[in-house]
């Protein structure tokens, strides 16, 4: 009996009128947990009942506590007929199960009905008394913390990052059970909501158990999705990264660790980067590795990747190019082996994180992805979800081998997704192959003693660009040059990744959102024929998406993509591909060449003219974009602006002038200009269209920037004004003469118009940046395309922005010069313990400027782990300054980012993971489809906010709308929508408040503010 | 390609003040889009008409959803569905309850009933205000009226508390409720020169001095209904004109005091008895509901118009009214001093306000 759940129903307000005669309601409440139900008294004739009930107590296993939601039903008492349900509230009590999070859930919850929406509110108090249970065989995993955030949460420190955890549970979908034919839509919806809630709880508990087995205490980057497989069932699956986290209680705690002897041993990894090619291997053509596999029901996979995938578990350490291995020697090898073994113990060395503690990420290989087409069959035994498990295992295996082919032993920024249409399902997984530092991966090795050293020792923000694979034995044709930053190691010409831009990366100018959009018509087919058709189409789509991304990237004058997410959606008669990423110019990578157009019929003079006209347009666009995004690479700027497509010779000259590089490099570079990727051949109208579509993407209006990563490179002085939003559009295609081209154009217009609308709507926030722009595409019906966008708009201070960019450029110039000097002293510096600390990576520089407001001494800040955190770590006492006490309804901020600009997250209260269904049989009366969905999404936001507020929080970070499934039947005046959202409930304190609070505290030490702080510590 | 569905939902509800105004003014989406295009917004922002259309639709939908809450403004504050900063909430409410001068002049003093609602068509045509907007304004009047009509306590406070309006707007609504309840005639041709402000001013004075609330703050309807007893008592003032000696005495006292101070002294002297008779008779008749309704008509007929035809300057009217009210105190044999002050104090204020072109 390890837990006692206590619930008190206080009051209701704004209830709907249930009795037409009196215009009032006789309301009472049923409180249900597991199989136990309690009832309050009936509060007669009131729309604002005051039940003030006793404490209802449930004595339950902690296993149930984790799985079951608390279910509160508000009903209208009716003497003569059955009581009418007004609505329900489901409360996930998981946040109460671990000590550091919320201690009580108390507040006003919207009463929700799947047919009528929100109908009034109810005030509830929930508490849990947990008893210690030492049973070793327990099935619960209470105490494991879950975070949606895909980086180490702000007030924690990662002691060990254990690695990948995954789980899935399956069940029959209540909507497809026979009983659904006789029960009401409401009953069916509620059964579904309850089931998914239950399955989520179970899933979380099971993942928690795995984490405990790994000796972790938390899951970071927890991503839970459900697949509505229709007839064949309901799958809820989750992935995450198991970690051992330490709460940062006070900065002082770290100081002793820093003096510990292990420091000496540990700092060596960070000298790794300046070493040339100890373990070279290579990325660059980022989307190289995909596998398409399809199988009727038992799956086999057809490998289409080129390289010597699997196998060779041994690191390719010794295989470095001739010039390599100047030093490093045995120690490095040892270190590598250590890493290798640390990772190989794991089945899948995957990490769902997209941002990492400093020093964690050593090299990045490129994007790895795998897709597989499956035919769904009924899940016969829900307790044995083996088929689904096997499917995913197979895909993960592929990802793993792709990573290996890139010379990487791990995959970061890993995610999985599905697209289902009828009985066909596309499973996708993608991530970024990477080489990691073993420091965080092993038990008992390090404590976080290195933080301080680390920041000093990091190479100047280019280490992660250096190729991890073997230069002479590259898995795909790539064009390598010496790193433009350190001149010591090879880098690819472009880099695609699924992660966020590392905070220490040196970026020139600003970034921008880059999207590739693509449609392909497909014949309607059944079952296997359909699946085959889809798997045949997939490689072409991937290829085209990749080409589009590459071209658009070049058109922007940039050389790297971060946060790349490629979504392939399957519909009845088409496939859609949408890739989003944030393009940037990495200082370490070579200046991208331009785009050259070549005609196929060179003799036609008017055609020639046309081609040259197009060429001019493209060149102009590139030049314009460079100006727009402030891309002025310090040394090569004139050349770049002068000729977007440097002649091979020019380029080599350029290179030589920069550094005394060897002949080998020049040769390599010569091939650069000939590369096909730069040349667009216009051989038919299709290609012409492609070129046109390249040029139709309009840049955002001035004052607007957009990206799909957490932070926008080049902007760092965010103000506190944020606006999170969701926008949904559905278009109906005219079914006549649908061609691929028309389809592409429609889809392109849809996305572009949507973006334009966003810019217009948010114009009052200028200057502002849309961050974490997340597009999802679905094909709900034959001729319908639905695009859902969630993002956050953040305003920034324009003047300051200009300043920082300036210093930024100066910095990089300065760095360039120091780099040259460093080149000479190179061997010396390698051995020396103290690298010069002046070439701060710009990101850090800004970090400091951002946190300077907080008034915390830099020294304190230096010992904290969270580099990405825009604020310092002092003043912990004040963490629970009461959030927004004054107004009637406390403001709850929501953001897809992991932080809140201008504020400091002081506490994580638990994960929010909510699933809602809304249905209507009076679509017209509710304002049509738009009115219906608008109201529903607003209600979902409201319910999320209410739950966060009840936990004592004032914000949701890492918020994501994972699913928004909308179905309509206008003829029947009906519509239905399912929404699944998640995020982390947090308490934040404004930096300005923090300052005030700290001074107050200094003045009067025992004020209520102070004691309040200690309660939650 | 047609857009089936197109929505934008912000965690903080976006409110565009310009679109809100267009919505309040009762324009359809297409009219609103046309008006926005004309405002030059496309050129300023580089947006397309389609974007504008989508944006306008979106705002209209939001306003439509908010309207239900605006009917009971405290609900807007406590609801959880729309997260709106308090300053924006206040703006939404204030603008929603704001009304057009032209409209209120048509409706002021009329019974807020279905019958009047039917006339909104005509009012719309006459004033050029859209029917939709007329309906909103009319419904606002009626809603406020229904809520505060039978409530205890200060009318203005009640309105402020239940509708969260600004002080200024609450006072205006108090006047509207007061006028509607007492059905004062304001539509006659000779009253057309008066603004809503004039009436609201008078209403405030009357609420302060002539209602039940002026003597006892613990009764129902205290600020809405006139003090019946007081109206009853006003009959007693008749003696001022009925008793010829008293009238002469009153005149002589006033004339003595004002001699040489008025530019229109002779006109005043000639008209004194008429004016006094007019003012006192108005008081004496207020016992009948019908005459209460005609109060403003009577005041204009019996006082404003005669003075205006003799071209009294406002300063002279003020001097006269001050002296006229004050000198009653020196009339021996007149016992209703307090009553006179309660009546005349308010009336003097009203008359001064009503006296203009």
UniProtKB/TrEMBL annotation, chain B:
Gene Ontology MF annotations: fibroblast growth factor binding
Name of this protein: Acidic fibroblast growth factor intracellular-binding protein
GO cellular component: nucleus
Domain of life: Eukaryota
GO terms of biological process kind: platelet aggregation
Originating species: Fukomys damarensis (Damaraland mole rat)
Alphabetized InterPro entries for the sequence: FIBP
PANTHER family in UniProt: ACIDIC FIBROBLAST GROWTH FACTOR INTRACELLULAR BINDING PROTEIN (PTHR13223), ACIDIC FIBROBLAST GROWTH FACTOR INTRACELLULAR-BINDING PROTEIN (PTHR13223:SF2)
């Amino acid at each position: 009996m390890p837990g006692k759940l206590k619930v008190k129903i206080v009051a209701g307000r704004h209830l709907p009128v249930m009795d037409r005669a009196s215009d009032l309601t006789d309301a009472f409440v049923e409180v249900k947990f597991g199989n136990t139900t309690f009832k309050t008294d009936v509060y007669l004739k009131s729309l604002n009942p005051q039940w003030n009930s006793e404490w209802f107590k449930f004595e339950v296993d902690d296993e149930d506590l984790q799985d079951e939601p608390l279910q509160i039903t508000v009903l209208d008492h009716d003497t003569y007929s059955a009581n009418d349900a007004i609505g329900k509230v489901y409360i996930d009590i998981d946040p109460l199960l671990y000590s550091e999070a919320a201690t009580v859930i108390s507040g006003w919850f919207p009463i929700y009905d799947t047919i009528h929406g929100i109908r009034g509110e109810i005030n509830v108090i929930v508490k849990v008394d947990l008893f210690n249970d030492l049973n070793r065989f327990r099935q619960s995993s209470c105490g494991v913390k879950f975070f949606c955030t895909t980086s180490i949460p702000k007030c924690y420190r990662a002691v060990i990052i254990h690695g990948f955890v995954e789980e899935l549970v399956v069940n029959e979908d209540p909507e497809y059970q026979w009983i659904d034919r006789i029960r009401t839509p409401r009953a069916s919806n509620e059964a579904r909501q309850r089931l998914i809630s239950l399955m989520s709880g179970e899933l979380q508990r099971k993942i928690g158990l795995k984490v405990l087995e790994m000796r972790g205490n938390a899951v970071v980057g927890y991503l839970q999705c459900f697949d509505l497989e229709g007839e064949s069932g309901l799958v809820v699956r989750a992935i995450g990264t198991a970690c051992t986290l330490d709460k940062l209680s006070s900065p002082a705690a770290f100081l002793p660790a820093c003096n510990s002897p292990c420091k000496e041993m540990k700092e060596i990894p960070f000298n790794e980067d300046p070493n040339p090619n100890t373990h070279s291997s290579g990325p660059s053509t980022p989307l190289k590795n995909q596998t398409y596999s399809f199988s009727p029901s038992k799956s086999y996979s057809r490998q289409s990747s080129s390289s010597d995938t699997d196998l060779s578990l041994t690191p390719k350490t010794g295989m470095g190019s001739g010039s390599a291995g100047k030093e490093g020697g045995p120690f490095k090898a040892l270190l590598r082996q250590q890493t290798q073994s640390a990772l190989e113990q794991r089945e899948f060395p995957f990490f769902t994180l997209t941002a990492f503690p400093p020093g964690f990420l050593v090299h990045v290989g490129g994007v790895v992805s795998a897709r597989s087409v499956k035919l769904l069959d009924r899940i016969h035994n829900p307790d044995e979800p083996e088929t689904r498990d096997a499917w995913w295992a197979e895909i993960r295996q592929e990802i793993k081998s792709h990573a290996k082919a890139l010379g990487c032993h791990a995959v970061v920024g890993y995610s999985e997704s599905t697209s289902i249409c009828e009985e066909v399902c596309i499973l996708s997984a993608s991530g970024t192959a990477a080489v990691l530092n073993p420091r965080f991966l092993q038990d008992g090795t390090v404590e976080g003693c290195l933080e301080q050293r680390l920041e000093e020792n990091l190479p100047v923000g280019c280490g992660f660009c250096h190729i991890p694979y073997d230069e002479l034995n590259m898995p795909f044709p790539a064009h390598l040059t010496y790193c433009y930053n350190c001149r010591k190691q090879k880098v690819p010409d472009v880099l695609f990744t699924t992660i966020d831009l590392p905070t220490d990366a040196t970026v020139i100018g600003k970034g921008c959102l880059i999207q590739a959009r693509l449609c392909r018509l497909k014949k309607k087919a059944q079952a296997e024929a359909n699946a085959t058709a889809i798997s045949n189409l997939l490689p072409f789509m991937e290829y085209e998406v990749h080409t589009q991304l590459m071209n658009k990237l070049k058109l922007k004058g940039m050389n790297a993509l971060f946060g790349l997410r490629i979504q392939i959606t399957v519909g009845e008669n088409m496939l859609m591909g949408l890739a989003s990423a944030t393009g940037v110019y990495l200082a370490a990578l070579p200046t991208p060449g331009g785009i050259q157009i070549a005609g196929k019929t060179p003799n036609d003079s008017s055609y020639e003219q046309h081609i040259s006209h197009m060429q001019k347009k493209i060149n102009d666009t590139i030049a314009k974009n460079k100006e727009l995004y402030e891309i002025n690479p310090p040394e090569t700027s004139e050349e770049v602006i002068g000729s977007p497509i440097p002649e091979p010779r020019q380029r080599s000259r350029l290179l030589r002038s920069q550094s005394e590089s060897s002949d080998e490099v020049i040769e390599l570079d010569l091939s650069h200009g000939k590369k096909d990727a730069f040349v667009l051949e216009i051989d038919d109208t299709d290609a012409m269209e492609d070129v046109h579509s390249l040029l139709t993407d309009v840049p955002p209006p001035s004052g607007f920037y957009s990206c799909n990563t957490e932070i926008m490179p080049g902007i760092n002085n965010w103000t506190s004004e944020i606006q999170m939003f969701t926008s949904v559009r559905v278009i109906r295609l005219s079914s006549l003469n649908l061609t691929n081209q028309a389809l592409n154009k429609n889809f392109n217009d849809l996305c572009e118009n949507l973006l334009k609308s966003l810019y217009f709507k948010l114009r009052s926030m200028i200057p502002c940046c849309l961050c974490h722009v997340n597009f999802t595409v679905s094909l709900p019906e034959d001729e319908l395309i639905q695009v859902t966008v969630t993002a956050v708009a953040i305003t920034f201070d324009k003047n300051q922005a200009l300043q920082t960019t300036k210093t930024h450029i100066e910095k990089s110039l300065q760095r360039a010069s120091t780099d040259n000097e460093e080149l000479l002293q190179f061997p010396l510096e390698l051995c020396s313990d103290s690298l010069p600390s002046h070439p701060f990576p710009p990101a850090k520089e800004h970090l400091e400027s951002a946190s300077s407001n907080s008034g915390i001494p830099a020294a304190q800040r230096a010992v904290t782990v969270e580099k990405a955190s825009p604020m310092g770590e002092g003043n912990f006492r004040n963490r629970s300054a009461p959030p927004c006490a004054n107004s009637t309804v406390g403001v709850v901020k929501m953001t897809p980012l992991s932080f809140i600009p201008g504020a400091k997250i002081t506490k994580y209260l638990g994960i929010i993971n909510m699933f809602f269904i809304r249905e209507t049989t009076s679509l017209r009366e509710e304002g049509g489809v738009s009115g219906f969905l608008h109201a529903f999404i607003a209600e979902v936001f409201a319910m999320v906010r209410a739950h966060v507020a009840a936990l004592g929080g004032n914000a949701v970070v890492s918020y994501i709308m994972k699913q928004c499934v909308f179905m309509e039947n206008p003829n029947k005046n009906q519509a239905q929508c399912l929404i699944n959202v998640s995020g982390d409930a947090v308490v934040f304190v404004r930096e300005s408040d923090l300052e005030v609070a700290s001074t107050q505290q200094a003045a009067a030490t025992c004020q209520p503010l102070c004691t309040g702080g200690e309660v939650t510590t | 390609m047609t857009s089936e569905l197109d929505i934008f939902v912000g965690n903080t509800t976006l409110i565009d003040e310009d679109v809100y105004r267009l919505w309040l003014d009762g324009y359809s989406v297409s009219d609103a889009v046309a008006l926005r295009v004309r405002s030059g917004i496309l050129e300023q922002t580089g947006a397309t008409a389609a974007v504008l259309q989508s944006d306008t639709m979106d705002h209209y939908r939001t306003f439509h959803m908010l309207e239900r809450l605006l009917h009971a403004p405290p609900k807007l504050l406590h609801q959880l569905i729309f997260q709106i900063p308090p300053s924006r909430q206040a703006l939404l409410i204030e603008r929603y309850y704001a009304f057009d001068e032209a409209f209120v002049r048509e409706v002021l003093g009329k019974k807020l009933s279905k019958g009047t609602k039917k006339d909104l068509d005509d009012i719309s045509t006459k004033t050029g205000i859209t029917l939709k907007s007329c309906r909103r304004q009319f419904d606002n009047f009626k809603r406020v009226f229904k809520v505060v009509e039978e409530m205890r306590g200060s009318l203005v406070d009640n309105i402020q508390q239940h509708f969260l309006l600004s002080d200024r707007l609450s006072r205006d609504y108090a006047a509207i409720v007061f006028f509607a309840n007492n059905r004062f005639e304001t539509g006659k041709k000779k009253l057309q020169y008066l603004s809503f402000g004039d009436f609201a001013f008078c209403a405030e004075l009357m609420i302060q001095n002539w209602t039940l609330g002026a003597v006892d703050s613990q009764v129902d309807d205290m600020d809405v209904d006139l003090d019946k007893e007081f109206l009853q008592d006003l009959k007693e003032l008749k003696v001022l004109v009925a008793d010829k000696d008293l009238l002469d005495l009153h005149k002589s006292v006033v004339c003595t005091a004002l001699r040489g101070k008025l530019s229109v002294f002779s006109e005043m002297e000639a008209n004194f008895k008429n004016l006094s008779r007019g003012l006192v008779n108005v008081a004496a008749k207020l016992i009948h509901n019908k005459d209460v309704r005609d109060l403003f008509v009577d005041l204009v007929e019996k006082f404003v118009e005669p003075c205006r035809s003799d071209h009294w300057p406002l300063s002279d009217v003020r001097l006269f009214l001050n002296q006229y009210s004050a000198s009653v105190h020196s009339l021996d044999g007149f016992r209703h001093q307090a009553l006179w002050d309660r009546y005349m104090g308010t009336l003097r204020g009203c008359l001064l306000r009503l006296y203009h072109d």
